[in-house]
Amino acid sequence: MPQAADAPEMISGGHLVAKALKAEGIDVIFTLCGGHIIDIYDGCVDEGIEVIDVRHEQVAAHAADGYARITGKPGCAVVTAGPGTTDAVTGVANAFRAESPMLLIGGQGALSQHKMGSLQDLPHVDMMTSITKFAATVPGTERVADIVSMAFRECYNGAPGPSFLEIPRDVLDASVPVAKARIPEAGRYRASTRQAGDPEAIERLADLLVHSEKPCVLLGSQVWTCRATDDAIDFVRALNVPAYMNGSGRGTLPPGDPHHFQLSRRYAFTEADLIIIVGTPFDFRMGYGKRLSKSASVVQIDLDYRTVGKNRDIDLGIVGDAGLILSAAAQAASGRVDSGAARRKEWLEELRAVEIKAYENRLSRQLSGAQPIDPYRLVHEINEFLTEDTIYIGDGGDIVTFSGQVVQPKSPGHWMDPGPLGTLGVGVAFAMAAKYARPDKEVLCLFGDGAFSLTGWDFETMVRFDLPFIGVIGNNSSMNQIRYGQAAKYGAARGRVGNTLGDVRYDEFARMLGGYGEEVRDPADIRPALERARESGKPALINVWVDPEVYAPGTMNQTMYK
Question: Residue limits of the Thiamine pyrophosphate enzyme N-terminal TPP-binding domain (predicted)?
């Protein structure tokens, strides 16, 4: 029936969700449909928000994480109640450890059926609280947009991270007068989170830099999170400081830059007199801080106060935005009579000699013509293939560990890996998000065959939404990183328990789903296959058979096996 002329304008909960997403700048949601959440879809249609429907909720959550990393805006995934939400837990947990801002919206049974055993009813908020920065139930339709904006705000409290909301079905489906609903306006419900750091601490850092003979800096993921690339580059060039990069910080400096170092990090951390760690916790990737020289002065810069000084004592900790702090420190040090930059020439030459020796020692492996293919040859060919516009994604164990030594993105924000949770299965989802958000970029993902198997069916989603990318599978028919540890711990006779996969033709899988597929057994064929995948204009999988008896040094050095 038509509304009476004097009837109030009404709006549903799902449409309020969409309005709140639009206010945050969200232009796409990643989802798998369910009866609890369909009114959100209806709202998204009206607000011009694209709905990308995937085949597994884990992929939806990973894609929201990936979207946040690429765009700098929070990502959003929408899943149904119960198993829909539990399927997304891994993606949320990965975003939590990787400090990636995203919102997961989960359905829930009607409030009118609370505790009655409704379909797919679970205590979602209790489950999500420990892996999010904010988790809540929306109690009424009038509050839907308000609490969505609240969840986004909490994503940026300190270091970024995910939030979770469950919205009961009757709350979502109900309509309320627009005048009674709080609908926050874009740009008016969040403040800037950029903090410049303690000015006294900045001056202390400047003093350390001025007097340092052998400084080095590690530029971690928060350099990209803070979009601090230009400030980081100005810092290392003004003060002549050698820079190492990890996580999303890779690509801050391009390969070949005189301040870009990669293979001499262990040496630098042993010999330096000042080590500045930017946006990287002292977790397992850093040996919990034990890999840093005990005689060096150690400075840690981080968005999160709780991270600074955790697991290792430091000489100086500064909480705040990486760009603002590096810029202020460079300005303070450069203003001194002698910033120390000129006398570091020999230190950079010393590190460059270590770099060259390490590269030359490995070069024969990178150019190996062996069959099965040496993984070093595969990642070498990928590195040579990358352009300045190629976003590189690593999804796997042993094969991606090889790539971390060799592959160097050519531009900032062009490296994606799971982060410290070490989650396998992020690759297709990250490629989906990256290609959607940046259609002008080429996207290349290196998979282990075990990693691709976890979420590979969403290759079909890439085909369905016409999101071309180049997938490369380093196929050794094994979960080889685990296999190495088992053989080392229990002996070769028990090295094949629970870790051996079938010899799967992933190239045929790609063709079956409408993409491009090609098999490679000869290392000389890797580059031509990559070129043909690029030219195909389709989602592609190049199935490269690599030697299962070869392990990455990082795999062999894992402490969990010792």
Answer: 12-121
Long-range contacts at 283-288 (CB < 8 A, ≥ 24 apart): 283/311, 283/420, 284/420, 284/559, 285/246, 285/420, 288/312
In this structure, are 300 and 423 located in the same domain? no
Same domain, 385 and 273: no
Q: Are residues 550 and 409 in the same domain?
A: yes
Domain that holds residue 531: 368-557
Virtual torsion, Cα 434, 421, 268, 400, nearest 10 deg: -60
Residue 3 pLDDT level (bands cut at 50, 70, 90): low
pLDDT score of 562 more than 70: no
- This prediction has a pTM of 0.96
Flag whether 483 is in a domain.
yes
Beta bridge partners of 542: 472, 518
Which pair of tokens denotes residue 541?
């999988």
Write down which residue in 323, 353, 383 finishes a domain: 353
CA dist 346 and 254 (Å) reads 22
- Same-domain pairing of 477 and 524: yes
Per residue in 75-117, pLDDT (tens digit) is 999 999 999 999 999 999 999 999 999 999 999 988 777 776 7
Helices 375-385 and 345-366, packing angle to 10 deg = 120
The answer to whether the peptide bond before residue 418 is cis (omega within 30 degrees of 0) is: no
pLDDT at 115: 78
Report pLDDT for 118.
76
Question: Hey, how many other C-beta atoms are within 10 angstroms of the C-beta on 498?
Answer: 9
The Cβ-side half-sphere exposure at 43, using a 13 Å CA radius, reads 25
Mean pLDDT calculated for residue range 428-450: 98
Looking at the domain assignment, is residue 395 inside a domain?
A: yes
Domain final residue, candidates 353, 378, 411 = 353
Cβ(403)–Cβ(381) below 8 Å:
no
Whether residue 311 is found in the same domain as residue 381: no
Q: Give the model confidence (pLDDT) of 52-69 as tens digits.
A: 999 999 999 999 999 999
On whether the CB atoms of residues 75 and 92 are closer than 8 A, the answer is: no
51 φ, ψ to 5°? -115, 110
